[in-house]
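#lab-general

N.A. 3:47 PM
ok so I finally got the sequence cleaned up, no stray characters, all 272 residues accounted for. can someone with queue access submit it? mine expired

B.Y. 3:52 PM
send it over

N.A. 3:53 PM
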Amino acid sequence: MNTLATRKKTGRRHPLASAALLLIGLVAAGGASAAVGTVANASPATDAVHAQALTEQDGAELYRANCASCHGMNAEGTENGPSLIGVGAASVDFQVMTGRMPMAFQGPQALERAPQLSQEQSDAIGAWVASLAPGPDVPEEQWLDTSQVTEEELATGAELFRINCAMCHNVAGAGGALTEGKFAPALNDIDAAHIYEAMLTGPQNMPVFNDNNIAPEQKRAIIAYLHYLDENPSPGGFNLGSLGPVSEGLFMWIFGLGGIVAITVWLTSRPN
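B.Y. 4:20 PM
back already:
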């Protein structure tokens, strides 16, 4: 009783009161942050406005909301982004549906990430961009279906890839470094349409391989070869990143030769 009366008289709080208040504040702040994040990341596909097919005019509005700050209000280009007049719907589909655009931040090149727009929104923007000037269209399904590709076509695709692509992307499609902080990305588990569109439009540092350079059936063969690599991992076991003789030689010098030296030292240290 005396202790309780003393606390009331002095106005002192329990020693754990401050910790309890801090814990309550953290929980409240975390809950508010989670609620805001859930609302901000809500999928646009659930909105009633996307319940029906988007039009070319919708594409123009989506473009101005998401792309115009870098590429200009009429796709004429600015100092922060190139002109999109004449790039076609294929380029829009590749850049938007691989998440490279809208660009997260300015850098040597746009990085692949989760798409920020839906396929319907991307198609609408592509239709509007295609209306500005002729350009490559999205590929037809017949050039993306590799289920009927023969072994001869698969071998042709492998040869075409080695001739035209391996110097940057590596013969196993593992990617590689370029100059000025740029790089050729790895080609594992890539959608067939995006592989075709990349060859057709030449995004970023990649050269353009139009249908006069590599015919549609040859592009399909290259896609089949890349999908073959996805389904058939290295038969020799651990592939060391598929980076070729440099990584393999380094592995042998460090672990192979190092192991031999370690065994030799251990044997010579044993008493006769």
